[in-house]
Specification:
four-stranded antiparallel beta sheet, alpha/beta, Rossmann fold, Arc Repressor Mutant, subunit A, 393 residues, DNA-binding, Helicase, Ruva Protein, domain 3
DNA sequence: AATCCACAGGAAGTGCTGGGCG
DNA sequence: CGCCCAGCACTTCCTGTGGATT
């Protein structure tokens, strides 16, 4: 027995191909965007300062992958004077951290904290001027940078401070509002060139999935129906390729556990449900305590037969808003919370409905007066479990 | 018809927080 | 550094609505 036998899988050849960080050899459906970026960057290889670029696009539209591809292409030029650096601003979220990372990349040494910002700045400038070099810095998820104006200012000022060589940036953001947050000066300097990444449509997603399937799954494991369904679902959900790949990964894992050796649309459908539940669970556990208690009250009300006031509408059971509020106040007190006022409870109900966690209907006729009837959008036992896990620790 | 009930949702007020400014 | 003010989360109070009750 050797190590190769240990992770012998009936389904997967190489799971990591399905990871969002994987960069395929051939980039699909993004030739235009890549070309635009290359055109923007191209001047460096002639010794001129390239343009700053800002890239927009929703999640899973290939922004990161395309910019990583750009770095690959730049490396192919084997020009020692040009250095491309990719960094994710979730990690490097301040001006200081970005420059610290720059220095450690340029000098190839472990960088400690404690240096002054001015020193880091000088180090970067020296490195550029020493041999008239160029730095292209790719700032992924740039909206996470806390002192963005300071960062952009320092980066552009660096350009003014040096005679030869240059420093330019490519910012990536998935929030359109990002530009509004910028000050006038940084806005004009970072938006010299803008590229928008459109979402993928269903057939493009299919192409992307097929490209990765041949590398990640064993031969004939995935049925065509599974691919169709996964790309159709992802196309509906904002054309997010990351989501589509995640669906495939999950359904592969499901098939592995079932030992059927095949991934069909059944597994994909199951994977979609799981993904949805994960999303809901994440959403619920990030809610304020009282909103969770409201949900919990509704879940318990649904489980409790003694709350007899229920109405059926198309097979779905709805509960009276007032009943649920009463129940909520009891539960709150039991857990040592001061219950929230009925007025604010109504606002919570609206918010929860907007988030798609509950659904409500108006009682036109039926019992006295007007009331809102409520029910959970998810299975109440699951909601109960989630809240018990997060709230009761 | 008048009154009540059970709720919806607007207005104004309160206590706290964090950010900008002199 | 303190000060002030805006904004938020929430309460209290109030008016409206429409079927139910008397």
């Amino acid at each position: 027995m050797d190590f190769n036998e240990i992770d012998e899988s009936a389904i997967f050849k190489n799971k990591s191909v399905l990871s969002p960080h994987y960069v395929p050899q051939e980039l699909l459906y993004r030739e235009e965007e890549l070309k635009k970026m290359m055109v923007g960057v191209a001047p460096v290889f002639k010794g001129f300062k390239p343009k700053n670029i800002l890239i927009y696009g929703k999640t899973g539209t290939g922004k990161s992958i395309t910019s990583k591809k750009l770095l690959e292409k730049m490396n192919d030029m084997k020009d020692a004077r040009v250095k491309g650096i990719y960094l994710n601003c979730r990690v490097y979220d301040t001006r200081y951290k970005v420059f610290q990372k720059l220095v450690s990349e340029l000098k190839n040494e472990f960088s400690k904290t404690g240096y002054s910002f001015a020193l880091l700045y000088e180090t970067v400038l020296d490195w550029i001027e020493e041999k008239e070099r160029f730095i292209i810095i790719i700032l992924d998820e740039i909206d996470f940078v806390k002192d963005i104006d300071a960062l952009v200012y320092s980066l552009t000022r660096a350009n003014d401070d040096i005679q030869k060589g240059g420093l330019s940036m490519i910012g990536i953001s998935n929030k359109i509002q990002f530009k509004q947050k910028l000050g006038e000066r940084s806005k004009s300097s970072i938006c010299e060139e803008e590229i928008v990444f459109q979402t993928y449509n269903s057939s493009q997603l299919q192409g992307i999935l097929n490209q990765r399937i041949s590398l990640s799954f064993k031969e004939g494991v995935i049925t065509p129906g599974a691919v169709n369904l996964a790309s159709a679902i992802a196309a509906r959900e904002n054309g997010d390729a990351r989501y589509a790949l995640n669906l495939l990964l999950r359904s592969g894992e499901l098939a592995e556990r079932k030992k059927t050796g095949k991934v069909t649309d059944k597994e994909v459908e199951e994977a979609r449900k799981m993904a949805e539940e994960d999303k809901a669970s994440e959403l619920i556990s990030s809610l304020p305590a009282h909103q969770q208690l409201v949900l919990y009250a509704l879940a318990l009300t649904s489980a409790d037969v003694s709350y007899k006031k229920l109405v059926e509408d198309g097979g779905e059971k709805y509960y009276f808003s007032g009943e649920v509020y009463d129940h909520y106040t009891k539960i709150s007190k039991k857990f040592g919370f001061e219950p929230i006022s009925a007025r604010w409870y109504r606002e919570y109900i609206h918010e929860l409905e907007e988030m798609g966690l509950i659904s409500s209907i108006h009682s036109g006729s039926g019992v006295r007066g007007q009331t809102t009837l409520l029910r959970l959008a998810l299975e109440n036992s699951k909601v109960k479990k989630i809240i018990e896990k997060t709230l009761m620790k």
